[in-house]
């Protein structure tokens, strides 16, 4: 919309791909080569607990899922920020990685919210339940009305991309 809102079905997947692509473009533009091997996986089965269960490199040390932050009553996520998930229905995310993401957001003036999603699962939690032994975390733009006509804001997508960029760049 003219006010910056984006409305569509399946925005968790669509906005997530936009976040991934935006961060990649900036890394290329800035000529930054990540210190660590970085892999992008795109799935559409996280809602049923499959997603990243299908595979990940054996030497994965950190797994950062880019999905969505649930907006609504009792949530701190908003459409115009990046949500950093502390815990979802599978349990807590890696404290060390989650706090590092928070520190990156603070250091780079990124609009963020720490949140808990009790009725939610991500590719990161699916990978952990499949046996991945790695630090895991979850970020994404705030999205209202999950699994309906969803709504987010371009600023939430941008803030999520900025956080992902700075994370990969090692800031």
UniProtKB/TrEMBL annotation:
- Which keywords belong to this entry? Hydrolase, Metal-binding
- Which is one Pfam family of this protein? Peptidase_M42
**Any idea what this protein is called?**
Peptidase M42
Keyword RNA-binding carried by entry: no
InterPro entries referenced in this protein's UniProt entry, alphabetically: Peptidase_M42 (IPR008007), Peptidase_M42_aminopept (IPR051464)
Q: Please give one Gene Ontology molecular function term for this protein.
A: hydrolase activity
Superkingdom in the source lineage: Bacteria
* UniProt xrefs under PANTHER family: AMINOPEPTIDASE, AMINOPEPTIDASE YHFE-RELATED
Which stretches are annotated as coiled coil?
Answer: none
């Amino acid at each position: 919309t003219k006010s910056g809102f984006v409305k569509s079905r399946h925005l968790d997947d669509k906005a997530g791909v936009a976040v991934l692509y935006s961060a990649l473009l900036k890394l290329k533009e800035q000529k930054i080569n990540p210190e660590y091997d970085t892999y992008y996986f795109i799935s559409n089965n996280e809602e049923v607990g499959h997603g990243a269960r299908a595979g990940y490199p054996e030497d994965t040390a950190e797994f950062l899922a880019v999905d969505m932050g649930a907006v609504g009553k009792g949530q701190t996520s908003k459409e115009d920020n990046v949500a950093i998930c502390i815990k979802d229905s599978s349990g807590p995310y890696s404290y060390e990685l989650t706090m590092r993401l928070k520190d990156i957001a603070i250091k780079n003036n990124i609009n963020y919210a720490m949140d808990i999603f009790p009725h939610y699962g991500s590719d990161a939690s699916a990978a952990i339940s499949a046996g991945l032994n790695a630090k895991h975390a979850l970020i994404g733009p705030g999205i209202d009305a999950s699994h309906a006509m969803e709504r987010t804001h371009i600023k939430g997508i941008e803030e999520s991309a900025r956080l992902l960029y700075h994370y990969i760049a090692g800031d």
